[in-house]
Amino acid sequence: MADMGGTEQRSTAQLVATRLWNSRLLLAAGIVAVLTVYGFADVTGYVVLLACAVLLLAAAMLPAGVARQSAEDAAAIEAGGLQQLSGEYLAAAVADPLIIFDRTATIVHANAAAFAAFGGIAPGMLLSLKFRAPEMQALLDSILSGAAASDVVDYTEKLPVERAYRVSASSVGHGTDLYVLVFKDQSEARRIDRMRADFIANASHELRTPLASISGFIETLRGPARNDPAAREQFLQIMQNQTGRMARLIDDLLSLSRLEMKPYLKPGTEVDLRQTLDSVIDSLGPLARENGVAIERDFAEGPLNVPGDRDELFQVFENLLENACKYGQSGGRVVVTIAHSDDGPEPGIDVTIRDFGPGIPEEHIPRITERFYRVDVENSRTQKGTGLGLSIVKHILTRHNARLSIKSEVGKGAAFTVHLPAHGRLTT
């Protein structure tokens, strides 16, 4: 109870203080008037103090009406400002396509975004003629019949390009006989959802294949090959290879995940491309010899430094050189080139890894960096590929403000060129 009393006293004190502050001009004028009378008339000090007390009491009591008047004035100003805004101005301020229509489903107004999204609409046109999809007809019927004050449906516009929208319809105010449609573009969200679903399906398929193989060999080893040492050794080797394939796939999936979660690259960090490429070539020397491929160097003179993360760029060149050794082995050699580039607005350095193998058909080049995309599925799996290597390369290069270009001619090999800025800001 004591706490409640203290709270009420504080609230009362705050109210009185607020009223005194709001009436400060009136209070100051009154005190000045009293002091003026005191200076020019024969008035005692007690009378002056009494007059000041009366002024303070009046200031504390009267401003309630003044506050109400101020609130009314503010509301009037707000209402006046809104009345000056027409529905056309308000519709134009909405970034999404917006259409206002009447009880006959006739378009009254459409904003610029609606004209851009749905060409051919105009005031006076019936919505039922423009949006013939059953879900849109049902939405209009629901709103115009009064069955619902507002409703939402999913709608896909096929032309000029396919776009997916979440469409909301509702009445405008009370008694206006006007209604509004707002189209929220969901195309990008749908595209990301499809990519996520495809990625999960592809990853599951890539893991399911070796698992099925291992499961089958286990059954064979428990059954017909139980007492066959030669078959047992062969099957165990295949199972080990399949297990390694799954491990590589999981490693690549984790690598992609880590790249997406990494923060900004630290500015000011430089990578010596000469030293990095030398390390990559040395690490892949055994693979090159195993495939009968000779790796040749053609490095420019002078410093070859670029901003970036050494481990990530090492991974880029390792993936590209490994692919060249595996898929271009019939050419017998791979050439690694580092050259200064003056093309474009800023100077840079190009690293090209060229093989002389079978090459890549032109129709595959635009999609070759997609996750799990393979030019030759069987050959890729034979070479222990996961289908994620070039996706990792592209992701890392994006973080470095760099890009990858691919040139190939069937029967003459392929050249993968990494264009790195010599200076510049690094991104996520």
Assign an overall shape.
Answer: extended
Average pLDDT confidence is: 78
Strand content: 15-25%
Output the structural class: alpha+beta
Give helix % range.
40-55%
Tell me the radius of gyration.
Answer: 38 Å
What is the CA–CA distance across the termini? 59 Å
The sequence of SSEs as H and E is HHHHHEEHHHEEEHHEHHEEHEEHHEE
The description of the largest β-sheet is: 5 strands, antiparallel
- Unreliable spans are 63-67
**Spatial arrangement of strands, main beta sheet:** 2-1-5-4-3
* Number of extended strands: 12
Number of helical segments with 4 or more residues? 15
Detailed description of the structure:
This protein is of the alpha+beta class and 428 residues long. The chain contains 15 helices and twelve strands. Helix 10 (229-261) runs parallel beside helix 15. It holds the Pfam family HisKA.
Summarize the structure.
The chain is about 50% helix and about 20% strand. The chain is α+β, with helices and mostly antiparallel strands and about 425 residues long.
Task: Summarize the SSE layout with pairings.
Blueprint: H1 2-22, H2 24-40, H3 45-61, H4 63-83, H5 87-92, E1 98-102, E2 107-110, H6 112-117, H7 127-130, H8 134-144, E3 150-157, E4 163-171, E5 178-185, H9 187-222, H10 229-261, E6 270-272, H11 273-283, H12 285-290, E7 294-299, E8 305-307, H13 310-327, E9 333-341, E10 348-355, H14 377-382, H15 389-399, E11 403-409, E12 413-421
Parallel strand pairs: 7-9
Antiparallel strand pairs: 1-2, 1-5, 3-4, 4-5, 6-8, 9-10, 10-12, 11-12
Helix pairs in contact: 1-3, 2-3, 9-10, 10-15, 11-13, 13-15
